[in-house]
Amino acid sequence: MNAVIDAVQAALAAEHAAVYGYGVVGGHLTGSRQAEAQQGYDAHRARRDSLARTVADLGASPVTTAAGYELPFAVSDAAAAERLAAYVEDRVAGAYGDVVRSAIGDLRRDAAGAMRDAAVRAVRWRGGSVAFPGLAEFG
Predict the structure, then answer these.
(1) Which range marks the domain in which residue 112 is found?
(2) For the purposes of burial, counting CB atoms within 10 Å of the CB of 60, is it exposed (0-12), middle (13-18) or buried (19 or more)?
(3) CB of 122 within 8 A of CB of 133?
(4) What is the CATH number of the domain that holds 74?
(5) What is the pLDDT along the chain (139 residues), one digit of tens a residue?
(6) Which of 2, 70, 79, 86 holds its CA 20 to 30 A away from the CA of 32?
(7) Domain total for the chain?
(8) 5-31 b/e with 16+ CB inside 10 Å = b?
C-alpha cells in the first residue's frame, strides 16, 4: 500500500506543479491557445483536488503545493509557453504512469484516464506524439 500512496502523492505533487505551470503558460498566450491553457489549468485543478481526496481516503496527509516552482527553462514568449505546457503534460503523464503501475481497480483506471488526458494535451501543445506517453524511460 505504501507504493500506491507514494505514487498517488507524486501524482498530486505533479498536479500542483501543473497548476503553477499553466499559470505561467496562460500569461504568454492569446486567443484560442490561451483558452486551451485555461482548459488545461482547470483540468489540473480538478485532478489535483480529486487526488487530494484520494490520498486522504488512503489514510495519508496530501502533499501541499510548494511555495514556488523552478521552471525547466525561461518562458518569455508564446513558443516557450507552448513548450512548457507540453513539458508539464509529459511530467504529469509520467506521474500517472507510476500510479497505473502500482494501483489496482478504480484507482488504476482513473490514473490511466488521467495519463491519457495528459498525453493528449501534450500532443496538442507539441504538435506530435511520443512513443510511450507516461513512460519516459521507454520514450
Answers:
(1) 2-138
(2) middle
(3) yes
(4) 1.20.1260.10
(5) 699 999 999 999 999 999 999 999 999 999 999 999 999 999 999 999 999 999 999 999 999 999 999 999 999 999 999 999 999 999 999 999 999 999 999 999 999 999 999 999 999 999 877 655 555 544 4
(6) 70
(7) 1
(8) bebbbbbbbbbbbbbbbbebbbebbee
* Distance (Å, whole) CA 49 – CA 67: 18
**Cell (9 digits) for 43:** 483540468
Three cell numbers at 61? Answer: 496527509
How far is 15 from 33, CA to CA, in rounded Å? 20
Contacts of 52 (CB under 8 A, 6+ apart): 12, 62
Helix (H) or strand (E) holding 44: helix 31-57
Structure-block grid coordinates of residue 22: 499553466
